[in-house]
Amino acid sequence: MKKTAVLPAWGRVLRGRTPLLSLEITKECPLRCPGCYAYQPEHLNNGVALRQLRDLRGRELVDGVLAVVRHFRPIHVSIVGGEPLVRYRELDELLPKFDSMGIEVQLVTSAVRPIPAHWAALKCLHLVVSIDGLQPEHDRRRAPATYERILKHIAGHSLIVHCTVTRQQVARDGYLHEFAAFWSARPEVRKIWFSLYTPQEGEVSEERLTPDDRLAAVRQLAAVRTAFPKVYMPDVVLRGYLDAPKTPADCMFAKLTTCVSADLSTLVTPCQLGGKPVCSECGCIASAGLAAIGNFRIAGVVPVSRIFDWSMTLGRRLASGNTPGNSRVQALAG
Ligand code: SF4
Ligand code: SF4
Q1: Of all atoms in ligand 2, which is nearest to the CA of residue 198?
Q2: Pocket test for ligand 2, best of 1, 45, 271 (most atoms within 8 A of CB)
Q3: Which of the residues 30, 59, 98, 156 could staple to 103 if both were Cys, CB 3.0 to 4.6 A apart?
């Protein structure tokens, strides 16, 4: 969320709504990435795995998504999966509608299949392509969405490359620099984002960063952004990586975002990662960025996050009793 979106977001909060919506538009994905949080058995925190949900398609999906969006009236929708491009036909109908509704849409994809060329004309759409490191590692982790395919499928688009920094990447001197150099040189890439790997409670994995790795990652990213202007890594985000929220209750991003899974009825909590993420090791660029906005003090006194908290309480009270007519949305509204 940009600083200019703070006022519209606040307006939504005062009406008892969350201004950000994250939508797992499908449970399907042709990839099997190691460390994928969406397919962890605990992702939905209700004993049901994502792949067991009944997801929707065709008219039912289009109408269902529109009902959810009309209910929450977000200013920003993040479309994730599974792999959203599996539902490109439905998106073909939904995206122009979002465009005309003035909703910003971030579509996070592996670019495993071609991105329709005409989507390049949609003003609302921000394509984010997830890339897990340099070609040898990425191709091993994310086949069939290999570098070769991605380069073919992004031609003609303008997009953001997103890399989740893992322990292995930090350990190899110059790795992030090399990554930024490769993608900066691509004309399709307008921005490069780096998140840090966020583990789940009790997780023992090769990807999980130690506190020293985190420090090293922040230092490396500070150097990389200087060398490559396409790398978006403001100080506030770097500071956020070193001082992540302690719990979801401290996380402005989690509080302002409603995350809905592929059946359009199940909520993903506490944030889009689901399960039990270790907030103190959060590396989510959106969470770090929003924390920075939240820490900004109005008139040098009251933090924005405090005002949002008060407004949320007030907005929910005012909105209670105001239930929509769609049963799926009623389930979401709880
Ligand atoms: S592309 Fe995304 S949803 Fe699919 S397996 Fe990889 S991380 Fe998970
Ligand atoms: S893991 Fe990160 S984004 Fe999720 S609730 Fe915790 S701090 Fe927020």
Answers
A1: 1
A2: 271
A3: 98
On the question of pLDDT at 23 being above 90, the answer is yes
Q: Tokens 């999980």 appear where? A: 208
Residue-wise pLDDT for 181-215, tens only, equals 999 999 999 999 999 999 999 999 999 999 999 99
Which residue(s) pair with 109 in the sheet? 129
Q: What is the pLDDT of residue 5?
A: 64
pTM: 0.89
d(CA 205, CA 195): 17
Sole residue written with tokens 């992702």: 43
Counting ligand 2 atoms within 8 A of each CB, the residue from 287, 290, 305 with the most, and so the one to mutate, is: 287
Contacts (Cβ under 8 Å, ≥6 apart) of 219? none
Ramachandran region of residue 266, left (φ > 0), alpha (ψ -120 to 50) or beta?
beta
Ligand 1, pocket residues at CB < 6 Å: 29, 31-33, 36, 38-39, 81-83, 110
Domain limits of the chain? 19-30+40-333
Average pLDDT, the chain: 89
* Nearest-angstrom CA–CA distance, 225 and 222: 6
Give per-residue pLDDT as tens, 300-331.
666 666 666 666 666 666 666 554 445 555 55
pLDDT tens for each residue of 215-248: 999 999 999 999 999 999 999 899 999 999 999 9
Give the orientation angle of helix 285-295 with respect to helix 235-242, to 10 degrees. 100
Please compute, for residue 135, the number of CA atoms within 13 A of its CA located in the half-sphere on the CB side: 8
Could you tell me the CATH superfamily of domain 19-30+40-333? Aldolase class I (3.20.20.70)
